[in-house]
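Run tripeptidyl-peptidase II through structure prediction, thanks.
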Amino acid sequence: MLTTKLIVLSLLSFAWANPLGRRALKLHESRATAPDGFVKTGAAAPDTKIKLRIALAQSNPQGLTDALMAVSEPDSALYGQHLSQQEVDAFVAPKPETVAAVNEWLSENGLTAQKLTTAGNWISFEVPVSKANELLNTQFAVFKHEDSGEESVRTLEYSIPANLVGHVNLVHPTITFPNPTGQLPVFSIPGKVPTPAVNLTSDAVPASCANTVTPACVQALYNVPTTKATQSSNVLGVSGFIQQFANQADLRSFLTNLRPDVPATTTFTLQTLDGGQNPQGINQAGIEANLDIQYTIGIATGVPTTFISVGNNFRDGALEGFLDIINFLNGEASPPHVLTTSYGQNENTISSNLANELCTAYQQLGARGTSILFASGDGGVAGSQSSRCTNFLPTFPSGCPFMTSVGATTGVPETSAPFSSGGFSNVFAQPSYQSAAVSRFLSTLGNTNSGKFNRAGRGFPDVAAIGDNVEIAFQNQFGLVAGTSCSSPIFASLISLINDRLIAKGKSPLGFLNPFLYANPQAFNDITTGNNPGCNTNGFPAVSGWDPVTGLGTPNFPALLAAAGAN
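Sure, done. The structure for tripeptidyl-peptidase II is below.
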């Protein structure tokens, strides 16, 4: 009898010493299998360090959405009256009881978290895998991507204390996987380089633009003026990831040859985070970074441009760079009025909770007056260049309804580029601003590809721009690149030029674009030919009106300027 009592007391003591003994745990997120192409190779080493990030429940997320739409819908009485950082933070800051509950749990486990955002809705701490397994009642493993050989420490499910349900939105990285199939644009050297700059004396598009796209071609296609911008507050931000560096010497060569009316000394400002840098060795120049910088500075004449280089000061990262750059900009007193990003990944690799958190972060920046644009992807309906699919693969963040997704066209006259990713989100519902346009498309489509996509999902892209045979300077050479990563900086540049005119008139920048864009379909060149094949199908067709290949179409700058009241 005495021995039995001692055993019971010993078990009780262990339960009180072990946090898992005190707290009932509840499954929080899970996925049935790893994304296609990943294979589990074994358990993660117990002493491997992992940086866990926790997204805390926000106090009023619906209030943020309502506020964003109120300042973004052209017929709203509050249109253009963007919010302050403090006003936005008030919507997403966790409630005191949420902070207290999470801190108590961490304290019980000997942990202290660091705040990652000004609102305090993201926190982080670093632990060995053994501790992460204990905290989340899971088993982190090593998953290898077969094609690239890239390894990631992930799990297929995890739990949190039951009393934290409603306080914790997600823990990351857990069930979100990286996207090794995403590729940079391919650089090819044509026979004649560089193409001489064209002096535009009429509205005609030079015949050479059918094979080689230069800044002059963009100006001719979309009637973009060469007039220099005047407003120093009107900053255009360019995202840089995965050790892609923007080279100053290549930019000088690009301007000298393809924008000779712009001083060759024109340059950009550098911001860095997560150990980011921008070394200037010619062999360190990046194709993507050069493309993005050359076609923002080369099109948005005179607009102050900032290259934001995000380093790799995080372990085992998938979307840490996306999280960090948006949190970084949300923490700035004066974020850029436009942000263009030429990176993304397949939506099915990402936890839906994480996708929603990032989408909320885009809402925060949009409510403050920033237009956020992303390339839609380069794999047609197969998403981010993946051929192994049966159902169509939407890309992220293009499925988020609070950013602007940019598809691609090719040729003169323009037709849809076959690589232009587009489709319908499986995470985000169709927003009201596009419901009429999408309904018309679905009616035209009929039963084609029925069952391969989510007819109720958010449709993308929203717009398009030329994205094929685009000439850049790269490592002391001129050559051609292709991809929606060409299209996003081009469209972003036009928005920056409109913002310049608006600010000069004492008006607000456009901010979150989509309600304005869908309210003004007449401001676009409708692209009605081509499709975006993938998954062993022809994908979606480009049709009259909006379609999930080129969106509303390509921009007509004077018409957009007039619609914005900036002419």
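The chain has a mean pLDDT of 90.
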